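Margin note from the TA: students keep mixing up input and output lines. Inputs are the sequences; the output is the structure of the whole complex. Example:
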Amino acid sequence: GENVEQHPSTLSVQEGDSAVIKCTYSDSASNYFPWYKQELGKRPQLIIDIRSNVGEKKDQRIAVTLNKTAKHFSLHITETQPEDSAVYFCAANSGGGADGLTFGKGTHLIIQP
Amino acid sequence: DTEVTQTPKHLVMGMTNKKSLKCEQHMGHRAMYWYKQKAKKPPELMFVYSYEKLSINESVPSRFSPECPNSSLLNLHLHALQPEDSALYLCASSLRDRGLDEQYFGPGTRLTVT
């Protein structure tokens, strides 16, 4: 099955700086890579996703890049704000058919004021 | 309606009890999922239903029994659970069953087994 590795486990950045979280996956058939933000006690919320037919996607301060050859994808958050503090999970599907997501272990992002 | 709802929000049960978790969506989604999330861990896939049929069971113990009565409802029946089953149980749904669509998560049921 799919295996997703995520780094770092904790990331502390100054407000206004950029944050980068990286993930690798193992299943070359995976073709959908979402990123979820989860605040304490709340449900995971999709913040951005990318499909294997594109290499980069951007939505305001958030961007995701995908390198299919290397099987890795990254989340970039620019101009970080205190409300960006949360746990971020990357995930990957297993390619084709009805399947769920395999999540990385999560990154606790801390925005220092 | 663009939300997945789950009831109850919290559940405390003994190891000999039988209880059920309920999940509902009215977005016309045809795939529904159960995930288990322990504290400070990622969600782990338990079951996938596609067009009301169980398509994936990730080797979950038989004390967890899923049911999909119709395209909008998903239940998880619990029986003879263990304390280590205490976790947040998340339901999710997606439009199609091709694994390429956004999964919308419900708020979860926080389960405590005593």
